[in-house]
């Protein structure tokens, strides 16, 4: 599914909506106010009929295009929408103490330094068990737009680590997602201070 259909820019939807409403409003104001009472009124009504029909046709075309994009956007999940959903599901998995929900979105090829997926899961289980981590809320997710020709994307996001290991804090994450079949999965991650992506932060125990 092309990205412009599964994830249409909001500006395109706004412009189509404005175009359809504008054409409809213009057609309405071109309509005669009432039945013609004089010959001149009849001529005016006839002269208005052609442009009014064309404007109504444009309004219908704009409305159909707008509704078509809305339906496509709601029916098909774009790469950006899938990655955003999976990051939120991973965050929910930590809050629910359900690491299966987290690690189903992590690739078997995952690496963080010398740690692989199994090492990351073992560290996560230990952190949850000891109360070091209770939640990892994620926000400000920035996924580059993909036109379908890229199978690896770098995604920036902000997050907190709540628990007794650290006081409440903020970090910037840079996740590397790869497309495995039709599914995007996390294959690597870097953690930075909240001020920018120059100062790396090492996850304790990894």
Shape: elongated
Number of helices: 6
The largest pleated sheet is described as: 6 strands, mixed
Highest CATH level, the class of the largest domain = Alpha Beta
The radius of gyration is 27 Å
> Going across the major beta sheet, what is the strand order?
2-1-6-5-4-3
> How many domain units?
2
Give the number of DSSP strands.
6
CATH fold-level assignment of the largest domain = Nuclear Transport Factor 2, Chain: A
Q: Briefly note the structural class of the backbone.
A: alpha+beta
Q: What is the second-level CATH architecture of the largest domain?
A: Roll
Low-pLDDT runs of 5+ residues are none
Helix content, binned percent: 40-55%
Q: Order of helices and strands, N to C? A: HHHHHEEHEEEE
CA distance, first residue to last residue? 39 Å
Strand content: 15-25%
How is the topology of this model organized?
Blueprint: H1 3-6, H2 10-30, H3 39-75, H4 79-95, H5 99-103, E1 106-112, E2 115-116, H6 117-129, E3 138-142, E4 152-159, E5 171-180, E6 183-192
Parallel strand pairs: 1-6
Antiparallel strand pairs: 1-2, 3-4, 4-5, 5-6
Helix pairs in contact: 2-3
